[in-house]
């Protein structure tokens, strides 16, 4: 066997051992039940690596599979993803077309026979102003949601044509329509009418080092939500980074328990 193959095999075993060690360490403490991601930095990654914008987003999609698998292996039950905001419709048509093609392709693959879906018994929920999307994208969304709607394992919320302010406005309309009385508009009733009401959001993670929420899950980012901003671009974000963030979250939880 070539020396490089030996080294590669050795490093592969080391990685598996470290990954298992991190998972076992995390299992000793509380596990966040709801984690959200603002997957920023795909275009910057493409520019830094001299590849096309489409290739940058594709690298981000591959990173997402690893991130989801790691989070669910750790015990997280719900993942919410900021895939496409209402503001993104203001981008150049070329960028919108790339994003929609990737969204259509990715969701089209996440059927009942997808390995990740089968492993975690995933239910895929696509949330937002879906009526603004083109028919071919809607067909892919409908197919995936229908194929996974009866799954009772983990949940992935994919936010498309979404902003937090629009979600809040929608929840107010639904609450008023359901009760007819302004006095019935409470924090509890609004939460019940949000796209993503439960469980409460434990951690929101944003990549690319930008310190802003970009109108994502504004209602859900309450006083107990940890907001983590990491400097790396989304395609570079991986298992080890998630483990470190979860360990930090556990440390804070333990510290608060003694206050």
Automatic annotation (TrEMBL):
Keywords on record: Transferase
EC number of the protein: 2.5.1.-
Domain of life of the organism encoding this protein: Eukaryota
BP GO annotations: polyprenol biosynthetic process
InterPro entries linked: UPP_synth-like (IPR001441), UPP_synth-like_CS (IPR018520), UPP_synth-like_sf (IPR036424)
UniProt keyword Transferase present: yes
Signal peptide: none
CC annotations in GO: dehydrodolichyl diphosphate synthase complex; endoplasmic reticulum; lipid droplet; membrane
PROSITE patterns: UPP_SYNTHASE
Gene3D superfamilies found in the cross-reference section: Decaprenyl diphosphate synthase-like
GO MF term set: ditrans,polycis-polyprenyl diphosphate synthase [(2E,6E)-farnesyl diphosphate specific] activity
Annotated family: Belongs to the UPP synthase family.
Name by which UniProt lists this protein: Alkyl transferase
């Amino acid at each position: 066997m070539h020396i490089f193959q030996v080294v590669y095999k050795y490093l592969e075993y080391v990685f598996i051992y470290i990954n298992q060690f991190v998972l076992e360490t995390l299992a000793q403490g509380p596990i966040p039940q709801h984690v959200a991601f603002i997957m920023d930095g795909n275009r910057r990654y493409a520019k830094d690596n001299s590849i096309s914008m489409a290739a940058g987003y594709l690298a981000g999609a591959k990173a997402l599979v690893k991130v989801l698998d790691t989070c669910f292996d750790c015990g997280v039950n719900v993942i919410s993803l900021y895939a496409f905001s209402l503001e993104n419709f203001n981008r150049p048509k070329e960028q919108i077309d790339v994003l929609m093609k990737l969204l259509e392709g990715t969701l089209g693959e996440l059927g009942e026979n997808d390995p990740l879906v089968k492993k975690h018994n995933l239910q895929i929920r696509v949330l937002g102003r879906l009526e603004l999307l083109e028919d071919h994208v809607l067909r892919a969304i409908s197919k995936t949601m229908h194929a996974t709607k009866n799954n009772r394992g983990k949940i992935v919320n994919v936010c498309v044509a979404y902003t937090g302010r629009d979600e809040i406005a929608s929840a107010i309309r639904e609450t008023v329509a359901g009760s007819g009385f302004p006095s019935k508009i409470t924090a509890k009733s609004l939460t019940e009418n949000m796209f993503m009401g439960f469980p409460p959001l434990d951690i929101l993670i944003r990549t690319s080092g930008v310190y802003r929420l970009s109108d994502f899950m504004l209602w859900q980012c309450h006083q107990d939500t940890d907001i983590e901003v990491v400097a790396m671009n989304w395609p570079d974000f991986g298992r080890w980074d998630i483990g470190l963030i979860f360990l930090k979250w556990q440390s804070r939880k333990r510290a608060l328990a003694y206050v």
